[in-house]
Write a structure and sequence with these properties.
The structure holds 2 protein chains of 2 kinds.
Chain A: H1 17-20, H2 32-35, H3 39-53, E1 60-70, E2 76-86, E3 96-103, E4 111-115, E5 123-128, E6 133-137, H4 153-157, E7 164-174, E8 177-186, E9 195-201, E10 207-213, E11 219-231, E12 234-244, E13 250-255, E14 259-260
Chain B: H1 2-16, E1 20-34, E2 48-62, E3 67-78, E4 86-97, E5 102-109, E6 142-151, E7 154-161, E8 181-182, E9 188-189, E10 199-208, E11 211-221, E12 226-230, E13 235-240, E14 242-254, E15 257-267, E16 273-284, E17 293-303, E18 309-312, E19 315-318, E20 327-336, E21 344-352, E22 358-368, E23 372-382, E24 398-406
Parallel strand pairs in B: 8-13, 9-13
Antiparallel strand pairs in B: 1-2, 1-24, 2-3, 3-4, 4-5, 5-6, 6-7, 7-10, 10-11, 11-14, 12-13, 14-15, 15-16, 16-17, 17-20, 18-19, 20-21, 21-22, 22-23, 23-24
The chains are: A mainly beta, B mainly beta.
Chain lengths: 278, 407
């Protein structure tokens, strides 16, 4: 028996995941419980829904990513990976995604395949290249760190509109833009957060900043999203910086140029492809 | 093997002019093993075993990934054991991936089947490179033609193999080993010239909801040899039989629980026998509010193969390949630090329910910088009765320190 030389703490990463981070298109029907009853909650929900829907119809995407982890002492650690996603075919299934690591070299070729579900836990398989082993893994770890970074799994995965309730806070100026400030509260179990606060611009309806509040209600970390680029109406942030307010660590996630509509289909996301990635 | 590679090359050359991407990598490792106890047998190294290994990794594939070429040679130079100084083509194949889901692999490749952690019963395609480690997880490249068919209803793998690979064993200087040295230069193939004969194998694997499963069959030369005692017990010859083996492997995944089971039925080595291993892996995420994950593992191992010796025309021979896992319980823990260096510790013990033989292992690993890793492994063989197959290795507890540079 060997240690699994995996950069993943063996868990989740799905939906339109990192690509969309909170803006993933979930054109599910409005959920009255998520929408709430007060004017503030309904406005927050409607604005989030507009942001959400701006992502629908992306088809599939491929992108190379670089994650730079920095600790308090300023030491850096870099992970390079490719990230491929397939938009769900209909509302009964979720997005599919595949991450393949290029570096660090000792985990090169490690891959994570995710089939997101709407209500059930996601299906996930890890490929360990040294053993040529495909292993189904648990997807129940939501608040854990992704590959040792300041990003938690749920930061990537829980992009479903209806998995939160909302509260509209008001308008603000942010980075020369007028933005709507919306608070949202996880409805799903095992979240590491009690609250998230989002700053969404009024021009292209994309999130520009997020604050994450821990289980004690204190600010845990801040995410800024920048370098938005337009791919025929689909917007993608190319620089995401997560700064932990409690331990001073920081993770920058930088995307290369996306390619959309590569002609991928569900066959490219079957479990059996893991052994032939490289 | 050569022929397979040449034909792979012939297929590949026409594509080399088209757009493709080369990737080169290498791992160079320095390793030091330390045996605290004096050896049990004359000739064995005393305490310190240094060695050095290099594995290079050469890959080429077209942009659409329809043609792939992989060449991964491995070599180890050992300061003590000549048998551990060895080289192997770990992988050396050409693969064609068709648009509609099938692929064909030609050449030396590695294939893993199975689900459980403490023992890999179902995994049979590749020979074990047992001089590398005692955990049977290092494998020799197996020449093969492998057709894979991906379907919505599961994956079918068909294998035709030749060019049998002999299992590696420690030489006279090596530890751990039995009292007599296994003479790997003079193996016995029982039925016919199994080295040139053809092995066949097939596997169907799929998943349904929380269930992942595989069903496999193998017909050909056993990767596990029996042992024949010759020259009055001074040497041991490996005996390779022709076998037929059916296997199943299943995993049920529910929240943080992974339930795993593997079983085989094998014909061709004594009476037809059944062997199984099953258990669970349960992970506690963010242990006590930290960033650590703790995985807890337990598995039960059963093996019904014949024990003792039979008299063959080449001498007294074990009735079946020796196993330590006939009625044993494994328990282990995996601690992942989830830090920038991916630090992890794995520890486990297997106890024989009949005579309480205890095999213990502890493995720790950490990345240093971006391209180095350091590993520390400990293996202990405790409480071995004279009747246990592990009795000869009772003094061979060892620690391995390995420093690897990745390029």
């Amino acid at each position: 028996m060997r240690l699994h030389k995996s950069p993943f703490r063996a868990k989740t990463l799905t939906f339109a995941a990192m690509t969309a981070l909170i803006s993933a298109g979930s054109a599910l029907a409005d959920d009255p419980a998520a929408r709430g009853e007060t004017p503030e909650s309904q406005k927050g929900y409607d604005l989030s829904a507009r942001s959400d829907r701006s992502d629908a119809g992306y088809g599939d995407s491929k992108v190379d990513a670089r994650m730079v982890l920095r600790n308090q002492a300023g030491q850096e650690s870099i992970r390079n990976f490719s990230f491929t996603t397939l938009e769900r075919e209909d509302e009964t299934v979720g997005d599919k995604s595949l991450i393949v690591f290029q570096s660090p070299r000792d985990v090169e070729g490690t891959a994570l395949l995710s089939h997101a579900k709407i209500l059930d836990p996601d299906d996930q398989w890890l490929f360990l290249p040294a053993l040529k082993r495909v292993k189904r893994i648990s997807s129940s770890n939501k608040s854990g760190a992704f590959v040792g970074s300041e990003f938690a799994f749920e930061d990537f995965t829980i992009t479903e509109l209806n998995k939160f309730t909302y509260a509209y806070v008001g308008e603000e100026e942010y980075g020369g833009m007028t933005v709507d400030v919306i608070e949202r509260f996880p409805r799903y179990e095992k979240s590491g957060y009690t609250k998230q606060k989002t700053w969404v611009d009024q021009d292209i309806f994309q999130p520009r900043k997020l604050e994450f509040y821990d289980r004690k209600g204190e600010l845990l970390k801040t995410l800024t999203l920048s370098d938005y680029r337009d791919y025929n109406g689909i917007w993608r942030a190319h620089t995401l910086s997560m700064v932990n307010a409690q331990n001073g660590k920081r993770t920058d996630l930088v995307y290369d140029t996306y390619t959309f509509k590569n002609g991928l289909d569900s066959g490219d996301f079957q479990q059996g492809i893991l052994t032939r990635l490289r | 093997m050569k022929r397979v590679l040449l034909s792979a090359l012939a297929v590949w050359l026409p594509f080399s002019a088209s757009a493709g991407e080369w990737d080169f990598g290498a791992e160079v490792a320095a390793e030091l093993r330390y045996f605290p106890n004096d050896p049990s047998f004359p000739g064995q190294l005393r305490h310190v075993q240094p060695s050095f290994s290099v594995q290079t990794d050469i890959r080429w594939e077209t942009e659409d990934r329809s043609h792939q070429l992989v060449v991964i040679p491995f070599v180890r130079v050992d300061g003590q054991d000549d048998e551990r100084t060895h080289y192997d083509l770990r992988e050396g194949y050409y693969r064609f991936n068709a648009d509609n889901g099938w692929s064909l692999t030609l050449g030396a490749a590695k294939v893993f089947w199975g689900k459980t952690e403490s023992r890999h019963l179902v995994d049979i395609i590749n020979q074990t490179d047992s001089v590398e480690d005692v955990d049977e997880e290092d494998k020799l490249g197996q020449p093969m033609a492998n057709l894979t068919l991906l379907n919505d209803w599961g994956t079918i793998d068909l294998f035709v193999m030749s060019g049998f690979r002999d299992r590696t064993f420690a030489g006279i200087d090596g530890r751990p080993r039995f009292g007599a040295v296994i003479d790997t230069d003079n193996p016995i193939f029982v039925r016919d010239d199994r080295r040139k004969a053809v092995d066949l194998a097939a596997r169907y694997s799929h998943y349904l909801g929380n269930w992942d499963f595989g069903i496999s069959v193998f017909h050909g030369t056993s990767r596990e040899p029996r042992f024949a005692l010759t020259a009055g017990g001074q040497t041991i010859l490996p005996v390779y039989d022709k076998i037929t083996q059916g296997g199943i492997d299943v995993q049920y995944t529910q929240d943080a629980w992974l339930w795993k089971f593997e079983a085989i039925v094998r014909e061709g080595q004594g009476d037809v026998f059944f062997a199984g291993v099953g258990g669970f892996e349960y992970t506690i995420y963010q242990l006590f509010g930290s960033n650590f994950d703790l995985g807890l593992l337990a598995e039960y191992q059963y093996d019904g193969r014949d024990e003792g010796f039979v008299l063959e025309n080449f001498g007294p021979t074990t009735a079946s390949p020796i196993t330590f896992a006939n009625n044993d319980v494994f328990a282990g823990a995996r601690l992942a630090f989830n830090d920038m260096q991916d630090t992890a510790i794995l520890a486990g013990a297997t106890v024989d329910a009949d005579d309480q033989f205890l095999g213990v292992f502890i493995e720790a690993e950490r990345r240093l910088g971006s391209s180095w890793t350091a590993e520390l492994e400990t293996r202990l063989f405790l409480n071995a009765d004279p009747g246990n197959a592990a009795f000869p290795i009772r003094a061979d507890d060892f620690m391995t320190f390995r420093l690897t540079r990745f390029f």
